[in-house]
Amino acid sequence: MPKHIKIYALILIIFILINAAMYRHSENQSSVKYNDLYSLYQLKNDSAFAYLVKHASETIPLADTLVAISESKENEDPAKIRQLIDKAKIQAEEIDEQLLIFIEFSDIYTNNAVPKLSVNNTAMTTDEQQDMFILAFQARVWKPLYNISYSYWKSNPKTIDAKTRETLHLLATELRALNKTITSFKEDANHMFFQGQVESYKASMLGKLKPHLERLKKIQDDFSGHK
User: Alpha-carbon distance 225 to 42, whole Å?
Assistant: First the structure.
């Protein structure tokens, strides 16, 4: 091989090695920067999660309103019943949204998890989180209340049938049980963030919420089947 070709080949090899080294350095720098941003975002997410749980609303007021509707007299003033139903719808929307937000902020960014979109363009990072969000979406209490509201508006005379009363009682019972779980969440939230326990707490919270959501969904499915 001619000498000048050897020189060119050597220069080319050196050039390739320098570029490879520069690329690896740049890649490492980007990785470090990404991990720093990643950690800061997770810290921000955890802080918001702890705040939301600590200031969670109770489900007892909604349960009380559902019981008041279910135990109303046959000859109750329709205007009073309408007022109770409208109040329950507002309370239910607040509780439904709160549960969805809990699940949305239960992200755990491990193993470079890539966020994926779920219901209503909400970003999820695990299949479990996505499944829980969908379950909570299906278990929303406002759905049967809007059906009950429409049925009551159409009925003449204004009546609430036995199945509706039973369903409202079952929903109220489950909401009272859910309130105990939420109360335990709030008590734990006072110290979990500062002790670095948010990640394990999130997994525990999802596990404890799931049975409540499943029961709320079943109650509504049974009611829809009846209708």
Answer: 42
